[in-house]
Write a structure and sequence with these properties.
three-stranded antiparallel sheet; Ribosomal Protein L30, Chain: A
């Protein structure tokens, strides 16, 4: 009688490397185009609520949102991202935290 070698089956899981707020590693705030705000309104909101934002960068982001549909406006600590998103949404912007 021939004995076959034992076979061990291991489950292989795909690792998720995306940023998530629950991991505590980082988060990003995405603003989506809504065609209901002027560039100046968006620039004012960005400069008021996003740390280290300046009018030139805010204009670039507003242009990107207008022409590409969305832009990442902040990347950093999840708690800060949530706070920024809440304030921008309070100003009427369409916001997502990833």
């Amino acid at each position: 009688m021939t004995t076959l070698p034992s076979t061990e089956v291991k489950e292989i899981r795909e690792e998720d490397t995306s940023l998530r707020t629950r991991d505590g590693f980082g988060a990003e705030v995405i603003v989506h185009n809504c065609d209901c705000h002027t560039y100046q309104q968006v620039i004012d909101l960005f400069c008021r609520y996003i740390p280290k934002m300046n009018p030139e960068k805010a204009f670039e982001l507003a242009w990107q949102i207008d022409h590409q549909g969305s832009a990442q406006v902040y990347s950093g600590e999840p708690k800060t991202a949530e706070e920024i998103a809440k304030k921008l949404a309070g100003g009427g912007l369409r916001v997502e935290v990833r």
